[in-house]
Design brief:
3 domains, 403 residues, Rossmann fold
Length: 403
């Protein structure tokens, strides 16, 4: 790859990206710009500045993107009730399009020729970053060091740091840490003992949630208020999208909610075992389906459910910026016009239980649904003709001996 004078690197300040920053300087003899996104991963992101400065980086971007992340990415995805393969709430997947967007924007702002990331050649993130970058900046060049260099293990990375005087946090003892990714929506864990699908995760691994059996013996009740499919208040308190998710993480995590242990199918073809903590997202999904059950037309709700696996797959595989995802989003957002109201939930020892829902846009008609006298609101005799017509093809087939 020629003509590389400046590269924008997605930079965490950790081992991998610190090595990448120096490797880019040496391999491409180029200037490196670092970009560190605060997506609510916990801890301070500002120390990344000092680490970048120690590597001779002059242009350093550190940005708080928490509100944009939840408002423009997490909330739209939850309007779709998206679950990949029926279990994964897409916490890592949904963060990548925003990072890709800012990478190419910063490249344009700084006159950079390329972007770079620390995703490996085995994972999904390389696909997500690069599909997003190419969709938004078709001519951008992408440098993926893990597909180029011969630094294939943590030990070789540490040896590189020792050789080049790069300061990094060393591992404790002889045990490698989990590969982790965190943002306001979740924490993911891979590697170490988790590489054996039959091994139970260590309790000490989990950071955001207490064990369900250790959760309080008394349930916690919360009320979520919705406007057009998005949560706008908790227990009557108006909150920004990022504040909603942060509060739900705290409340749900304290009640042992949000742990998932799955084997998933990566886009690159392999199966991967991962554990996830998504406390706030677990509550959001349950509550959103509850308010939709009250306010969505039956066929529209069923259509959404049919489209959801496709939508989730698009997000998982990195096609957030594709025309098909945007078209689906238009339909999903249209469906949310009347998804307004309140949902009450009971959180108890790992469980999220809906205990009430109400809406001024409710399609629930008590006069029709009641088991008591409906005062003529529904003529039960009509059901006979309805059933006869719907059984017509079945009766014809049976008369022809096809049963």
């Amino acid at each position: 790859m020629s003509g590389i004078n400046k590269v924008v690197l997605a930079y965490s300040g950790g081992l991998d990206t610190s090595v990448i920053a120096r490797w880019l300087q040496e391999t491409y003899a180029c200037e490196v710009v670092t970009f560190t996104a605060d997506l609510g991963q916990g801890g301070e992101v500002e120390p990344a500045r000092a680490k970048a400065e120690a590597l001779g980086i002059r242009e350093i971007y550190i940005e708080d993107l928490r509100e944009e992340f939840v408002r423009d990415f997490v909330y739209p995805m939850f309007r779709a009730n998206a679950l990949y393969e029926g279990e994964y709430l897409l916490g890592t997947s949904i963060a990548r399009p925003l990072i890709a967007k800012r990478l190419v924007e910063i490249a344009s702002e700084t006159g950079a020729d390329a972007i770079s990331h620390g995703a490996t050649g085995k994972g999904n993130d390389q696909v997500r970053f690069e599909l997003g970058a190419y969709a938004l900046s078709p001519g951008i060049k992408v440098i993926a060091p893990w597909r180029e260099w011969d630094l294939t293990s943590r030990d070789t990375l540490l040896a590189y740091c020792d050789k080049h005087g790069i300061s990094v946090e060393k591992k404790r003892g002889n045990k490698s840490p989990y590969s982790m990714d965190a943002n306001l929506l979740h924490i993911s864990y891979e590697g170490d003992v988790l590489e054996d699908p039959g091994a139970e995760p260590e309790e000490s691994m989990w950071l955001w949630t207490v064990a369900p059996e250790s959760a309080p013996d008394q349930p916690t009740y919360i009320e979520l208020e919705y406007e057009r499919g998005d949560i706008v208040a908790i227990d009557g308190e108006k909150l920004s999208p990022a504040s909603v998710l942060a509060k739900l993480n705290q409340v749900a995590g304290a009640n042992g909610i949000g742990r998932t242990d799955i084997v998933e199918n990566r886009y690159v073809g392999m199966k991967s075992r991962g554990c996830y903590e998504t406390p706030g997202g677990t509550v959001m999904l349950k509550a959103h389906r509850a308010i939709e059950s009250l306010t969505l037309d039956r066929e529209l709700a069923h259509l959404k459910d049919e489209l959801m696996p496709r939508y989730a797959e698009l997000v998982y595989n990195g096609y957030w910026w594709s025309p098909e995802r945007e078209a689906l989003q238009t339909l999903i957002d249209y469906s949310q016009e009347y998804v307004n109201g309140k949902v009450r939930l009971k959180l108890y020892k790992g469980n999220t239980v809906v205990v009430g829902r109400e809406s001024g846009d409710s399609l629930f008609d008590e006069a029709v649904a009641t088991f008591e006298d409906d005062a003529g609101a529904y003529d039960q005799k009509d059901a006979g003709g309805f059933i006869k017509l719907n059984s017509l093809r079945l009766r014809i087939a049976a008369n022809k001996g096809r049963r």
